[in-house]
């Protein structure tokens, strides 16, 4: 499959994203021009490294680049103060200098941690994102948001720090768990719902192929999502306006994730976002912003893909098509793990809010999202009670 280049147009901080099958084997050619000396540190997710590390390392070493590899454990716990400290100390011992480059090799966890480390070590060194999950290719590796988690919540400690280059090799997705494909797909169809109705039509029509195989449909969906995010980021790097729309489904989604203490074995971020988008559609319908038939279409799509689209333990996943991947069920013996008051509390702490008011990204139509400021808290609580019952 072809390799395409997408630019993130941020003036002096602009960078290219190379996307396609086989990008990794030519990583060195793309990275070499950024190096002042032939030494590079790689922060690598253990699974990404196990399956695809050889390809990256041999590409670099065949060009005489000395590599220092720091392997991190799979999972959200890696976005912690303690792994931040560990990585920083190892890099300093390695003798990292301001003009060196750090590579993030893995999913969103490694990308977020590495970006943050790169942004603050020696007051900032350049870094390259090599995203190896669907979610990180279409979303987290683009746009420069970096963070680690604090006790009070996820992603609360971080900076905006743009990479110098992103290499998204779609072949590495072959080794990814089905649930991680599903999780990434949520951020793909989200883009269609926010801004591009025709793209939503496309993913709706081609969902089975995009989810099921590394073919041209998946490649197109990835490229389109990256290009859309790149455009939004170029317009609004610091999320003062349009970039906030990318949080569709995330305020509800974070409340879901918080309910299971961000345990990604129970709810992956993307699975929570998919359910959060269904909730945002239902809430948009409730307040009269979205036509009922549009809401039904979104809900049906999310259900048919095999996501849990409602919180109620009795609904679970719907009648998905036979060809779709098996649904991920989160119902625990019919007992709801969700508490409306607790969810509302999480939602009121969202980073998008200001002055204690809850702001939500809602839908007017498929392909037309908007910020609903200062939501009616009593009505939202009523809605959450209905959703949880
Ligand atoms: N910075 C942003 O803009 C942004 C946006 C969205 C999400 N995020 C963050 O991204 C994180 C989630 O990212 P994620 O979904 O990529 O999760 P992840 O990094 O935890 O990766 C998911 C799983 O896939 C494994 N893995 C990675 N590459 C693999 C490969 N090629 N083959 C097989 N297994 C592989 C990992 O070991 C892990 O078990 C969250 O922390 C979230 O907050 C950040
Ligand atoms: Zn997300």
* Class derived from helix and strand content: alpha/beta
Oligomer: single chain
The CATH homologous superfamily name of the largest domain equals Dehydroquinate synthase-like - alpha domain
- CATH topology category name of the largest domain: Dehydroquinate synthase-like, alpha domain
Number of strands: 11
Question: What would the keywords be for this entry?
Answer:
two-stranded antiparallel sheet, 389 residues, alpha/beta, 7-stranded mixed beta sheet, Dehydroquinate synthase-like, alpha domain, 2 domains, 44% helix, Rossmann fold, binds nicotinamide-adenine-dinucleotide, 16% strand, binds zinc ion
Task: Describe what is shown at a glance.
The chain is α/β, with parallel strands linked by helices and 389 residues long. Helix content is 44%, strand content 16%.
Structural summary, described in words:
The structure is a single chain. With 389 residues, this protein is of the alpha/beta class. It folds into 2 domains: 4-176, Rossmann fold; 186-388, Dehydroquinate synthase-like, alpha domain. It contains 13 helices and 11 strands. It has helices spanning 27-31, 46-61, 81-94, 108-120, 134-140, 178-194, 197-212, 216-235, 250-259, 269-286, 292-305, 340-348, 377-388; strands at residues 4-8, 15-20, 39-45, 66-72, 101-106, 126-131, 148-150, 153-157, 165-169, 360-365, 368-372. The strands form 3 sheets. A 7-stranded mixed beta sheet has the order 1-2-9-6-5-3-4, sandwiched between helices. Strands 7-8 form a two-stranded antiparallel ribbon. A two-stranded antiparallel ribbon has the order 10-11. β1 (4-8) and β2 (15-20) form a beta hairpin. α12 packs across α13 (377-388). The longest helix is centred in the middle third of the chain and has 20 residues, at 216-235. 47% of the residues are buried. Residues 314-322 have low confidence and may be disordered. Nicotinamide-adenine-dinucleotide is lined by residues 45, 47-48, 51-52, 74-76, 79, 106-110, 112, 132-133, 135-136, 139-140, 143, 145, 154-155, 172, 175-176, 180, 183, 269.
């Amino acid at each position: 499959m072809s390799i395409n280049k997408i630019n993130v147009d941020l003036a002096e901080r602009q960078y290219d994203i190379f996307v396609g099958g086989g990008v990794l084997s030519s990583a060195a050619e793309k990275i070499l021009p950024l190096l002042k000396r032939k030494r590079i540190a790689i922060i690598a997710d253990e699974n990404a490294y196990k399956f695809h590390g050889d390809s990256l390392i041999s590409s670099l070493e065949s060009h005489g680049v000395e590599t220092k590899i720091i392997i991190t454990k799979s999972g959200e716990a890696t976005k912690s103060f303690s792994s931040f400290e560990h990585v920083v100390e190892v890099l300093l011992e390695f003798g990292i200098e301001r003009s060196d480059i750090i590579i993030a090799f893995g999913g969103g966890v490694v990308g977020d941690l590495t970006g943050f480390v790169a942004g603050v070590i020696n007051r900032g060194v350049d870094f390259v994102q090599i995203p190896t999950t669907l979610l990180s290719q279409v979303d987290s590796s683009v746009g420069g948001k970096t963070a680690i988690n604090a006790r009070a919540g996820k992603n609360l400690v971080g900076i905006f720090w743009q990479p110098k280059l992103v290499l998204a090799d779609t072949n590495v997705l072959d080794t990814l768990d089905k649930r991680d494909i599903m999780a990434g797909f949520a951020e793909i169809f989200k883009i269609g719902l926010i801004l591009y109705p025709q793209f939503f039509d496309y993913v709706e029509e081609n969902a089975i192929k995009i989810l099921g195989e590394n073919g041209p449909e998946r490649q197109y969906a990835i490229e389109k999502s990256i290009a859309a995010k790149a455009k939004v980021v170029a317009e609004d790097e610091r999320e003062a306006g349009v970039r906030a729309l990318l949080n569709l489904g995330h305020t509800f989604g974070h409340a879901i994730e918080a309910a299971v203490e961000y345990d990604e074995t129970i709810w992956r971020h993307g699975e929570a976002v998919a359910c959060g988008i269904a909730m945002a559609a239902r809430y948009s319908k409730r307040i009269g912003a979205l036509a009922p038939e549009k809401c039904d279409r979104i809900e049906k799509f999310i259900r048919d893909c095999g996501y849990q689209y409602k919180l109620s333990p009795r609904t679970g996943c719907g009648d998905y098509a036979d060809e779709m991947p098996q649904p991920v069920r989160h119902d625990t013996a019919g007992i709801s793990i969700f508490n409306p008051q607790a969810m509302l509390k999480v939602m009121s702490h969202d980073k998008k809010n200001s002055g204690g008011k809850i702001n939500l990204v809602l839908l007017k139509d498929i392909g037309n999202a908007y910020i609903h400021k200062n939501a009616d808290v009593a009505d939202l609580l009523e809605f959450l009670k209905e959703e949880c019952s």
